[in-house]
Amino acid sequence: MKTRTPRPIALSVVLALLSGLLVGLTFTVTPPASAAPVTDFDPGNIISDAAMYDARSMSASDIQRFLNVRGTNCVPTAGNTCIRSYRESTPSRAADALCRAPYAGTSNESAATIIAKVSVACGINPQVLLVTLQKEQGLITASAGKSAYTYSRALGFGCPDNVGGWCNPEYAGFANQVYSAAKQLKRYAANPTSYSYRAGRTNTILFHPNRACGSSSVYIQNQATASLYNYTPYRPNSAALAAGYGAGDSCSSYGNRNFHLYFKAWFGSPANKAAPFGVFDTATNRAGTSAVRLQGWAMDPNTSEPIRIHVYVNGKAKLSTLASSSRPDVEAAYRNGAAHGFDVEVEVGAGTHAVCIFAIAASGGNNPQIGCKSVTAQNLLPRGSFDAVAAEPGALRVLGWAFDPDTQDSIRVHVYVDGAPRASIAADKSRPDVGRAEGRGDHHGFDTSIPVPAGHHRACVYGIDATGGANSLLGCKGITTKNAPPRGLIDTASGAGGNVTISGWAFDPDAAGPVRVHMYVDGAPRMAVTADTHRPDVGRALKIGDHHGFSASVSATTGTHRVCAYAIDTSGGPSASIGCKNVVVSNKPPIGNVDSTTSTKAGIITMSGWAADPDTQNPISVRVALDGVPIRTLVASVPRPDVARSVGLGPDHGFALDIPSRNGQHTVCVTALDSSSGNPTSIGCRSVTVLDSPAVGALESATSTAATLSSSSAPSRSRIDVAGWAWDADLLDATTVEVLVNGDLAATVTADKAHAPLPGVPSSAVGFTTSIETIPGAYEVCVRAIDPQAPATPLGCRKVEVPNSAPIGILDSVTATAGGATVGGWAMDADSSGSLRVHVYATDAAGTRFGTPFTADQRRDDLDRVYQNGALHGFSGKLTLPPGPYTVCAYAVNYPSGPNPAISCNAILVTS
Question: What pTM value is reported for the model?
Answer without folding.
Answer: 0.36
